[in-house]
Amino acid sequence: MKAEQNKMVGVDYKLTVDGQVADQSRPGQPLEFIFGTGMLLPKFEEAIAGKEPGDKVAFTLEPKDGYGEIIEEAVVDLPKNIFMADGKIAEDILFAGSQIPMSDAQGNRMIGIVKEVGDETVKMDFNHPMAGKTLNFEVEVVSVRDVTPEDLQGHCSCGSCGGDHECGGDCGHDDCGCGDHEHHGHCNCH
């Protein structure tokens, strides 16, 4: 059976960014997804389309085909007083590199990365952590099968994408609220 539209596909993968392993599947725990439903980057799916269990492929995605270029307007200074909890500044989360879940005025959820903490403001970056990065993947297709009704149960809707995409309960995307280990956004939930 080949990886194609509406098939349940399991892959072992390794993602290398800037010469470092940024993410990889755990041994014996492939990333499973329903092919063609927007759970993964389109160019990722394109690279494994038609592949069968045992097939391996290595490919590179430029930023435009991954998580986009860095958008300067997504780096903003926010008033420090919005980071208050129980009447005082939440110093425990305000440090460079800290990832903080936030919402905009329309209620859209997003993750901001603290870049700098000043006396009155906090510089936050709302670009995807992999924005501007070239993504190097090594992928092995380990399973392809028909989708079962059980596969469709227990899916959670990613709050950060307004519920437009479904992430399977086992997709393991922390930022989707769907799993117990972090993937750096192979689903379009961000």
Question: Topology, pairings included?
Answer:
Blueprint: E1 7-17, E2 20-24, E3 31-34, H1 42-48, E4 56-61, E5 75-79, E6 84-85, E7 88-89, E8 99-103, E9 109-117, E10 121-125, E11 135-146, H2 149-152, E12 156-157, E13 166-167
Antiparallel strand pairs: 1-2, 1-3, 1-11, 4-11, 5-10, 6-7, 8-9, 9-10, 12-13
Summarize the structure.
This protein has 190 residues and is mainly beta.
Explain how this protein is built.
Strands 1, 2, 3, 4 and 11 form a five-stranded antiparallel sheet that branches. This protein has a four-stranded antiparallel sheet with strand order 5-10-9-8, with no helix packed on it. It has helices at 42-48, 149-152, and strands at 7-17, 20-24, 31-34, 56-61, 75-79, 84-85, 88-89, 99-103, 109-117, 121-125, 135-146, 156-157, 166-167. It is mainly beta and 190 residues long. The longest helix is centred in the N-terminal third of the chain and has 7 residues, at 42-48. The radius of gyration is 18 Å and the shape is elongated. Helices cover 6% and strands 37% of the residues.
Write down the overall mean pLDDT.
Answer: 82
Number of helices: 2
Which outline best applies? elongated
Portion in beta strands: 35-45%
What's the alpha carbon Rg, rounded to whole Å? 18 Å
Report the span from N to C terminus.
30 Å
* SSE topology string: EEEHEEEEEEEEHEE
Secondary structure class reads mainly beta
Low-pLDDT residue intervals, each spanning 5 or more residues: 155-190
Helix content: under 10%
How many DSSP-defined strands?
13
Query: What about the largest sheet?
Result: 5 strands, antiparallel
